[in-house]
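ok here's Gliding motility-associated C-terminal domain-containing protein, seq below lol
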Amino acid sequence: MSKSIPASILFLFFFIYTNFSIAQGSVCADSVGDDGADPFCSTTGIVFPNCNSSNSSCVSSSEIGPNYGCLTTQPFPAWYYLQIDDTGALTFRISQSTNEDGTGTQLDVDFICYGPFPDPVSPCTAQLTAGNTVDCSYLPDAVETMNIPAATAGDFYLVLITNFSEQPGFINFQQTGGTGSTDCSILEATLGPNQDICGSDPVVLDGTSDGAIRYEWSVFNETTMVFDIISGETSPTYTVTTTGRYQLLIEDIDGNTETDEILITFYTPPIIANTPMDLSACDDDGNGIEAFDLTQNTSIILGAQDPTEFTVTYHFTQEDAENYTGAASDNIIIDPDNFVNTVADQVIWARIGGTNQICFEIISFVLRVYENPVANVPMNIELCDNALDGDDTNGVVEFDLSNVAVEVLGTQNSVDFVVSLYESQADADAGVLGTELPNNYSNITNPQTVYARIHNTSEQSCFETTSFQLIVNPLPVVTPIVSLLQCDDDTDGISLFNLSEANTLISSNAVNEFFSYYLTEIAAINADPANQIVNFTAYSNPIPINSTVFSRIETDKGCFRTAQIDLVVSATQIPASFNLTYRVCDDVNMDNDDTNGIASFDFSDATNQVTALYPAGQVLIVTYYENLADALAEENAIIDLSNHRNEVSPFVQNLYIRVDDGSSNGCLGLGQHIRLEVAALPENNPVTDFRLCSDDPGRATFDLTEKNAEVIGSQTGTLLVSYHRTEIEAVNNTGQITGVFTNESNPQTIWVRVQSDDNNNGTADVDECFRSTISFDLQVLHNPELINPDPINLCSDQVNTVYNLTLREDQITGGATNIVLAYYESQNDVDTDNAIPNPASYMNTTLIRELIVVGRDTDNSCFSSVTLQLRTTLYDDFNISPTALETCESDQEGVGVFDLTLAVQDILNLNDADISNDLSISDYNIDYYELMQDAELGNANTISSPLAYQNVQIFNQVVYVRVDPLAMGNDCFRVIPVQLIVNALPDFTLEEEYVLCLENDGVIINLIPTDVIDTSLDDTIYDFQWYVGVTATTGNEIPGEIGAIYSPTTAGQYSVLVTNNRTMCVSVVETTVVESYPPQIEDFTVELLSGAFSDNATIEVMVGSDAIGEYEYRLDSGDWQSSPIFTRVSRGEHFVYVRDVFMCGEIELSVEFVVDYPRYFTPNGDGFHESWGIVGNDNVQINGILIFNRSGKLLKDLGSLGTWDGTYNGNLLPSSEYWFKVRYTENGIMKEFNASFSLIR
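and the structure came out like this:
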């Protein structure tokens, strides 16, 4: 809010009224009725719309008169005054932006503060001086900080705020710090502070003021940015119903006016649409802490209100909810969708507010955590079917469910938790009252799943479910009365019964049921152990001939019925003298083992022999058993009499015969009357394969009896051994192989028959056991095939020559990798296995030698041998170190041309008269190669032009000459290296051009760049001849000039011929000598082409008529240029340099006639640019210099020679732009110049 000053001081603070509640215009005008400075109170601060270039009614600048300090300009001023209440320093924040709340584009704002003053009427133009300036800022910032240090209570201060940006916006003026405060009594708060209204209730503004005779109400127009008068509203009060900024103007009888503003903002208040629900959670771990989604209540609280206009926040306390403003520092639950409670029954406060949080409502709800029960799984309940409902086969019985709750609860307290039972999972999850099952419940399906629900009595949503089954087990289905008949082994009518034989008679499901046997039916019903028959498989009937017992038949679920068993006994015997014996050899049938005493027996003829013991006409049933118990119990009878195996009794087994009367089951006989015997076979000893080496592919002669020892092994009994081509022949003892045997295939399998000669008669009797499963292979291994190798021929300088015998290895073996070779000098060495130890470097001491090579097959150890001949041929008498060939390089790159054939004369020693070896070039074929390996191979990669060969390796290279004898049988060629040497040309350079520097009269000064033309070569190694002209032509020689250097005396072209006195290689280099004249200082002057203070000071170097050279020019340390004119030359002393283009000489000219001013100075005590001033020269005379600030105030008169140190009346002036005026005389003409410069601290 802003308010104008009381009428009593209006005459002192007069400003032009602009429809804004800010004072603008003259500080000391005396026109009655104009606005003055507005009072300011830091308690309320102020935000007001600025004046700007878009508002034509605004004053664009402050009046002339006050000292505005750092404010070079004062666009769109706003004046305020304040009074100090509490003594101390005060800090204020002044900011400007396009939006009233400080957001939007930030705009540059400036200020100046004056004071202190004893009262608000003292400040006037004369008092607004630099001495009364407290603080000032002209920074290009949108936020400024103003400081009033050590303010005293009761003092007044005046503040000017300017809109440097000139853009529309709002200025915010607030106190932000300091121990001092302002006195708000200077404000007549007629309308009071701005108001935020929640709802639509009208607001009555009361601006009643004593002495007021006129009231005028206005509202701020956001479009035009001015206040519009509200028509007809002239009373002290005004009822506001819409949001807006309202202004009241009051006028007294003298015509004095004052205004006040207020911002009224109406907001739509939110409502608590619905009471939020308390939230509960089930605790799974017993710590009382769980995560809650508080936002479940958001839509409940909002109801139909727009969530983009209203927000719901959640808080820990009522105070936090009430004080929430939306700031980041406010206390708020930041993750309401996953909030973890900190205490039991925690109260949460919800706040619904508008986007600016001015209007709001709060309400609370509670978070409760309940213990979650554990549903222990009860046991299934199983019952046997019964006839209580009239039917013991329908699977329906009545169950007692009263104990299930105890199992589900376990150790949990029944006061805290309740257990209920339901027919479905859905019913259990719903827990609807009335759907529970009763304690006495008859199942409706079999089996039937029942669902148990246990829930917390305080919160039924905290529950768990489990399930179990009701199972009705069926009773067994039985035949109530059955009979067992038994044969006695004597005449007393008492026999042993296997009562379990009645099981299948009683029940068709006997295999899945449990049978027990009792003396009485009551005992069977009650499962009375005192009357139970324990040894039911060997039960003796208590009453001769006929007896009765009872069986209890139970299912695997314990459900039972009973049945009656009648026991009937009859008796007979088999004669003790009746015995049968069967003997067989061990076999491999079934178990693949012919050594375990188990074999197959055929005693199917025994039945006829047994039945023959009894009179004809009877129906007899004969069965056979391995033991008496089975025979009596009629269990495990031998079924296949033609293929019985004595597995339970190896080697010897005795069997029982049981004979039953087929008509009455009366026994005809029972006893051990059959003996089975198994005879052992000869041992199955392993026999190794019989291998022989042979040169005849796949054939050899074998003595098979050599294998007898392996066949018999350690056996001591008499055995007959024979050999056969096939297994069938061995089995049938046919096709015996006798004597030595030549194999018929390779390999060939031989089968062995070895037979026990039990009676030692030397004959293979049919009842003697034999083995025909032994076999072995005859294998004929082929000796390795070796190829007679070619002789190894070597050329050598001497008889003793080292040979690599392995060179013929692949030829001898034919490339076979399984043959290992050894080399021997004699057959005796072969016999004693004295092989040559290092065949790859064998020293042969004769010209011709034959060696024996033995090859062994690593796969079968067979071996063969061949001979290898060594032949040594001695070389012809060649020179293998010929003299190197030399030539001069042809291109100064280390390359030359050679006649390689010159080396052949040297190689054949034809150049040496002292050697007579009868060698002739016609006896040889000569080839030349660049690579040794090509020469060794004698391939087609020869040098194609040996008469004119150009080396491919610079300066030094080796080529290879291959000399092949043409004589038949002499393959001893030699490859001889020949060194090629390229001698370098004399290597030197001369300057392309030399300059002969001359005086104007032609006298030689010197030669440049060097005093002489120098080849820089050693005259002990090289010879020299200098010539006139670019070529070393005969007749152009310079007489006597045969040294490494030359001093020319005239301009022209010269060349020098240089010869290497060892290699005689020659080089010619040419050069040019030109003449030049250095500048003379008396031939040059410098003239100023422009006046003083010129933006483009220009000077020119003037060349005199006596100067005869070509010149270049440079200003100070700049670049050299061909033009003598220099522009943009700064003030002060300069140096101009002149030189001839050939560098023969250079002169320096000093000039100082450019007059200019420094653009800045830095009086900060560092010794650089400490003062500012202007100095004249011979052409310019300085008459006077005046210094001004940005407002035009004269700060300093420097006279004609003075300088300025940046102070005013002894006070340091701030960094800023300052202006000066200089009066001067140039070339006799009076002139004046104005400009600005910068003071930088």
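fwiw The two ends are 40 Å apart (CA to CA). kinda neat tbh
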